[in-house]
Specification:
By secondary structure, the chain is an alpha/beta fold. It contains eight helices and ten strands.
């Protein structure tokens, strides 16, 4: 039986960002800064509040939040309605490392399960490893059928590793069997024009892209990796903490 936690808050919230005056971003729209990004200082001053049995009164917190430079929010909101499942369409998220591709894919799987659909999430490497472990043709066919069953199959990190001809063929079989039958979510760090750098030949890449994009929502994200940013900030703190000689 599901349980819920009762919470209440009374206080003030603050947001200071680098957008122009009157921008409606505030996590409900798009930034209008010159480079399309938004760097905001968000604060919360709780005068009185609880979360379950935890007393939150007098808690003060602040966070620095950064938008990616470009993401088409209407497309993200549209796919989160899960209408693409009924249309048997795919969702492809294209972005460099550290911009939230995996988070979007996992959120779609989560929303699908909450809506009563069957869904599965795994990386492309794990998918290929699972299929190559099958020792007989019969076992391989059985495993391939298992990847056709979920209403939604999310394959993360396509393009992070190079594929030999056998691995590319296995990935193509999964995509081909689900084509116009059930939806796939793909995340990739490579634009489509660079897929031939990780697949054994251009024809293989074109065949995959053709089936994935024929009926698909494509989400492109541009920005700076949060991992890179956090690493740079950590390094800066270490330098500042070094004793001066």
């Amino acid at each position: 039986m599901a349980t819920s936690t009762v919470w209440r808050l009374r206080g003030r919230g603050y947001e200071f960002c680098n957008c122009d005056f009157g921008c409606g971003c505030n996590f409900g729209g798009f930034p209008n800064s010159k480079d399309g990004s938004c760097r905001a200082l968000v604060g919360l001053d709780i005068a009185e509040g609880t979360c379950g049995d935890v007393n939150l009164s007098a808690v003060k917190c602040a966070a620095i939040v950064e938008w990616p430079k470009a993401i088409h929010r209407p497309t993200v909101e549209r796919v989160l309605t899960l209408d693409f499942l009924a249309q048997r369409e795919n969702v492809i998220v294209v972005a460099q490392n550290g911009l939230g591709k995996t988070m979007i894919a996992k959120n779609l799987v989560h929303e699908a399960i909450l809506a009563g659909h069957s869904a599965r999430f795994l990386t492309a490497a794990d998918l290929i490893l699972d299929l190559t472990r099958q020792e007989t043709a019969r076992a391989l066919q059985h495993r391939l059928r298992s990847y056709l069953r979920p209403s939604l199959l999310a394959i993360d990190e396509v393009g992070y590793l190079a594929y030999d001809a056998h691995a590319a063929d296995l990935l193509f079989q999964v995509v081909s069997r689900r084509y116009e039958q059930k939806s796939i979510v793909i995340t990739t760090n490579l634009p489509f024009k660079q897929w031939d750098t990780v697949f054994p030949n251009a024809a293989c890449a074109v065949a995959l892209i053709d089936r994935l994009t024929h009926h698909a929502e494509i989400i492109s994200i541009d920005g700076e990796s949060y991992r890179k940013r956090e690493a740079e900030q950590a390094q800066k703190r270490k330098q500042e903490q070094k004793p001066k000689r």
